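Record 1 of the preview.
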Amino acid sequence: MNQSTKETEGIAGKTKFKHWFFDIGYNNATVLTVFTLCMIFSVSAPIVLFVGTIYFIIRYYVDKYNFVYIYPAHIESKRIIRSSLVLYPLLAVILF
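->
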C-alpha cells in the first residue's frame, strides 16, 4: 500500500490518516485554560463570555468532525483523566 492510498481511505476506512492521533492531554489542557480565562476575565470584560462561547461552539464542531472522519476511534484513558476534567472546571468556578 503506497502513501497516497494509505492517506486517502476516507469515509470507507473511517480514518483518513492512520498515523495521526488525538492528543487528548494537550486538547483538554487548552480547553480548560480557555474556560478558566473566560471565567476569570468575564468580571472585568463581559464580552469575553461571548467570545468564549463562540470558541467552544466552533471547537465542538471541529472536534466532532475530527473524531468522525480523521482520527482513529480507539482512545483509551482508563478513566484517569476524568478526575482532572471535573476538578479543574470546578476550581475555575470557585476562582470566579
